Amino acid sequence: MGGGYDRRRAAPAHVARAASDGLREPLGSDALGALVARESPVISLRFVSTWAPEFVACIRRHYTNSAGAPPGKKLAVEITEDGRVIGFAGYGEPTFKLAARRRLGLSSGRPLPHTVNNFILRLEGERRAKTSEIIGVVEEAVAAEWRRRWGWCPEHWETMVGQGDAQNPGACFKRAGYRRLGLTTGRTARRPAGSTHGPRVWSDSAPKIVLYRGPLARLSTLAVIAEEQ
Question: For the whole model, what pTM was predicted?
Fold first, then answer.
């Protein structure tokens, strides 16, 4: 599994203006273009195997006792900034059932078609690009690659983040357009490692925050209760 995707992040206009404020001579278009290119981080993406040792190692650093990527359709993305690997992202099939989806009017809690799940985003070390910007670039590439491989483009994007000690868990995803739906129940089911059809094994885990990006409107809690009655 391989492939590359490069995109230069365009510097905001105020960056170029601020950098040129102290110059006595106004910048010409060529000089201004060079300034923007120098100030803007270059984000490069490469699709790698979900069994690539560096991706599996990233998952195991992120999740204790993880056996690796989940079963089913999935993509692994290596993220590079200015020629240096800064992390990985993984997208796969959605969780079978989430009570928080009722906030989208999905009373069964089952995902709609064309739903994908971000099962890992791990960035390490210093970087210049904002995490929310990186998410946008990654998901643009994932959408195109998903369509190329499986014939349809993701429309509904989900992720689940731990509550941890952060004041605003999942803030980078929220800035990238995700909205909070609620919490998981704290019960999770996974198939044994290496098995895509074996029985699910249930276990307890800390509830996570469910985030969603897509066209569906988020219902109020009262609206959800009214729908279920």
Answer: 0.77
